[in-house]
# Entry
Amino acid sequence: MVTKKKSKIPCLSLSSFLPALEAVTAAVTMPGGGAPPPGTPSSKPKEKQKSKVVVALYPFKAIESGDLSLEKGAEYEVVDDSQEHWWKVKDENGSVGYIPSNYVKEKETIGLQKYEWYVGEMSRQHAESLLKQEDKEGCFVVRNSSTKGMYTLSLYTKVIHPQTKHYHIKQKDTGEYYLSDKHCCASIPELINYHKHNSGGLCSRLKTTPCDRPPATAGLSHDKWEIDPNDLVLHEELGAGQFGVVRRGKLYGTRDAAVKMMKEGTMSEDDFIEEAKVMTKLQHDNLVQLYGVCSKRRPIYIVTEYMCNGSLFNYLRRTSPDQLGPAVLLDMCLQVCKGMAYLERHNYIHRDLAARNCLVGEANVVKVADFGLARYVLDDQYTSSGGTKFPIKWAPPEVLNYTRFSSKSDVWAFGVLMWEVFTCGKVPYGRMKNNDVVEMVQRGQVLERPKGCLIEIYNVMRACWRQSPDERPSFRALKEELSAMLRD
# Structure
């Protein structure tokens, strides 16, 4: 019997076997040294994601721990931008804190925004008001033109009589920019610099720009809404209304503010204080900014942004339509509409939109005020549609009949506000009694067209006054329509 000799086979460990297997797999799947098939893990280390860098457009002074001061023109690395209005950033020294997001712009997309003369989407009417207020020869701004991708230079002169001239910045096929064919430059900043030294066909040399006014921040800090009364200095009375006296104030010794001193028993205070925490986070160029509340003692103070020209209603009453002109009036309506479109997007209902509840600042800037406040009023005469204080003349059928508020009831009120603007502050329905107004609205009758108001603008008002809420336009659609009208 012959016994076969067993051959000795070396025992391979898994670790020594895997490289050979990977080599065979690579040879089979990648003939000729081609790329690995989709899904094959790469042996290359992953590239580190590029951090977002922003540039400060305005200076910001941090007043609370956890926030970070900004230096205009300095760069900051974004650490956390998950909040809409307050971002956490790191400065060049490694300090980390929160900053208002509307004070910075991403470095890669900053473009012209780093220049103090660039005002972006500012309308022609707002530019004229701003330059007229500055009242300096050669004062100018550059803004986006109504033609997308183009720019307009708005220049103030007093040579013959005070006026603003508007020049389109043109571009040649070669890419050069010019205001006059004879003077071309490679970029808009170079063109502006040239005309600072040479009028070059313009009515005046470019001399100065309006004062740089930073926008309002969304509250005082990333998480602050309670204000210590000791940080407030109260000045003169600005007016009195449903909720109490309003006085001008100084916050932290530097910031102008309006202080609403709430009459005790007029509102559901605890509910409002909870809501105030949310309301301080609402931020838009056409909303009066809520800075916070003083709730630790009575009466409660509501502290907001200060608007130097008071209510839109009073502003219109002391100004004739000829002084402002239809374009400025339409621009005022558009500004209110922009603020309301923001509230609509955030599912926020105003409930008491009217010219008396909008405020006017410098250069005809209009902002919506007191949004959402009506919910917390305890006065039945104010909250019930049968009450004498209820704003019946601004209310649609569904509010009069069922007290059913929505963004579409705000749209109805906006139509009445437009009517107020184009009549320069007349009272809707004149001296008609509330009962007669209710009957008129329920019959489908609406306010007449204001004298001198274009039929296209009046048709927008009528669209706001459609009986069915679903048939009324949204604020977003109204904003687009009014913007197009203003451009035309």
Confidence is low (pLDDT under 50) at residues 1-35. The longest helix spans residues 326-345. The longest strand covers residues 163-171. The chain is about 30% helix and 20% strand.
